[in-house]
Amino acid sequence: xxxxxxxxxxxxxxxxxxxxxxxxxxxxxxxxxxxxxxxxxxxxxxxxxxxxxxxxxxxxxxxxxxxxxxxxxxxxxxxxxxxxxxxxxxxxxxxxxxxxxxxxxxxxxxxxxxxxxxxxxxxxxxxxxxxxxxxxxxxxxx
Length: 142
Hints:
The chain is α+β, with helices and mostly antiparallel strands. The protein has one domain (3-125): Nuclear Transport Factor 2, Chain: A, CATH 3.10.450. The chain is built from three helices and six strands. The chain has helices at residues 3-17, 20-24, 45-62, and strands at 27-34, 42-43, 64-77, 81-94, 100-115, 118-127. The chain has a six-stranded mixed β-sheet, covered by helices on one side. Strand 5 and strand 6 form a beta hairpin. The two termini are 26 Å apart.
């Protein structure tokens, strides 16, 4: 497994475990995120922490566990910079159950830089295609 794939694996595990600190460990302090939920952008790790904390707490309060799948991964990297695009599927289950409640797949792009020997996400963009007839996100394409 490459170091970049390790970053994606950490992302998956941290979401499944709802572990905020583990999740944030792969983000740079100056991360810039375009997420498809709630706001236009999120600048900096502290602001991202607020968003992630809300997300993980809502999951816990609802008794939901997310299993994350990453597919169609393309990684381009050089010595200090890397670019990744992939499809990320979030499948929700009730804690302790194998019954899937819902699922959605987003398109993700990550920009990473090497800092003190470790890869950190400095930019993240997630998106969903939009139905042009009704303006709604298309959650069920995959």
